[in-house]
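User: structure tokens for this one?
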Amino acid sequence: MKPIRLILIPASVADPAPWLIVGEDGRVCDRGVLTPDGGGAGSAQLRTVAVCPGAETTLRWLDLPAGGAAQLRAAAAWALRETVAAPPDRLAVAVGPAGPAGEPRLAAVVSRALLQAWIEHLEALGVRADVILPDVLTVPEPDDDRTLNAVTFGDSLALRGRRFAAAVQPDLAELVAAGRPVVPLEDPAAVERALIAAARFPALNLLDAVQPERRVGGDWRRTAVLAAAAAASPLILVLAGAFRDDLAARRIEAETRAQVLQTAPELAGAADPAAVLRDRLRTAPPPGGVSAAAAALYAAVERVEGAELDILVADPGEGVKATISHPAYADMEAIRADMTRAGMAVTVTGTLDDAGRVVSDITIGAL
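Assistant:
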């Protein structure tokens, strides 16, 4: 096997890019940090495998029909339409080699602009990649279906299971694992061996998504027909939205859920723990209790000319509630601002017009 130059693409262009030279026997011949002039990174004749941040990719094992590379990428894009969304010119889809008959096939989705940025960054460092592989695919796959192996890459934790691979924030690992034991791989030598094994036999190459399809059998007419059919395929046209935005939104949602569950673990079974917690805060007693809320509200209403406090009640299940009549809709904003300065939150639950006046129902809670 041809010697390999293995490079770790950093999360930031300002960070160094460590590299290894792996000989034909799989042993490390040299190592260092890649500099902008490419100095010390070995011969240009080496096969270069670059490992990119897995947090920027989405990986799935899919049941795909038989077909050429373009058809497989289009089918993978269709299968992932509910998971990621982006117009074709913003999306790069790569498919791994076929496995045993009937086995799902590995597919990866990444922002086309980000993939191009990685390519250009490597070229600026003086190397041209033959393979770009997400770091999560360098983590050894466990022997059983229940375990997740884990390796830390920078600020992310790469998790690998049977037909599962994802990079997450370390504090979200337990949430993503969903009860499965997480086994950290912490020995640097073992991590290096895993990287080398993955580089020698990559499970997938993201560059397949941007390289022209190779001609098969010399029949250029057949290749042209297949390429034209793939270009016209409606599978490519179904993706919409922004992949990066969708990925960021899902990551923020997971982080929010984890933070809520740290505060209120009893909400683990709720479909939307954040919404339940917001309702709790809205109906929670304000600082100082009912008497403090009443004093602050009387003062706020008094400062609005023509406003009157009609009803003030304290409900153990729904918090402190009040009904205020006032001359104009804008008056409620002035009252809310005064209550906020007093450390209390006002939620308007209903508004109606009554004989030329505005009647607002509110709930007072903690900020």
